[in-house]
Amino acid sequence: MFGKSLLMYIYAETPLHPGSGTAISGAVDLPIQRERHTEFPIIQGSSLKGVLRNFACWIKIDDKCENCDKKQETKDKCEILKTIFGSQDNIGGISITDARILAYPVRTLKGVFGWITCPIVLDRYKRDLTLANLSVNWSIPKPTSDEEVKICKNSNLTEDYVYIEDLQLKCSEDENVNKIAEYISRALPNSGYKEIKEKLKKDLVIVSDNVFRDLVSLTTEIITRIRIDPFTGTVDKRTGGLWTEEYLPTDTLMYALILIPSKLDKMKPENVENKMMSYDEKILQIGGDETIGKGFARVRLAKKEGD
Q1: How far is Cα 305 from Cα 307, in angstroms, rounded to an integer?
Q2: Is the pLDDT confidence value at 79 over 90?
Q3: How many Å apart are CA 302 and CA 268, to the nearest integer?
Q4: What fold is seen in the domain 1-18+45-97+248-307?
Q5: CB of 136 within 8 A of CB of 126?
Q6: What is the DSSP secondary structure assignment for residue 274, as one 8-state letter?
């Protein structure tokens, strides 16, 4: 069914607002997208596909992009974009899954901050790696209770206990956490990311599934914004003036799968794969609020070695 597959990592350089469009609980006016059953943050595949298509000319996915005027009517006629991403008249193209959370940044008493993940997230990640024809040499350590965490050897976060947000958690070292952290650190580019990669290799923490769900639900950034009346320069009282938006914090790490069909019109899977690799290590804008500096993320693509 699929001739090639790529793993796309998304590392938040600024807070991300992949908006859901509706408030379920009423606590936040503009919440982020989440899975219904786990409440884990996601970025819908349709959003990601739109982002990749929108930036195709900018990253020069085709030789003709150099002279493309980047107008919408030009893009609508572009055969490369139609073949890779599909069109209203020509269903098909690559398949992009929802982006799942992999490592979530949290405040810590020592080391400033660290990243958390959990057995459910890692088990999904491991299964998705097999779809991308990637293999791993680590097993998943599981905390025995909600009060325990698994940490890397030589972690910067611990002094008898690990303090995450307002939680005091017992900790135990596990070599598999080091292996997982080392593997996940490949999601970051080598150039310019040395310090943050080294921190990730030491400061990844595996918490229980319950604690992870609570932290990704309760510790996102909630920003209150104000609508200004352009005539008075003060709060626009006609529309209420205030609203709240939810953001995934900077340094959040997510991933999605890019699945390339074994047959595309006029293009072989390996040719599509090579064109998609043009996005590797580029910064793209994902979600809302581009004009206030939100949504900038570094994209990293991984494929099976030797392909």
Answers
A1: 6
A2: no
A3: 19
A4: Elongation Factor Tu (Ef-tu); domain 3 (2.40.30)
A5: yes
A6: H
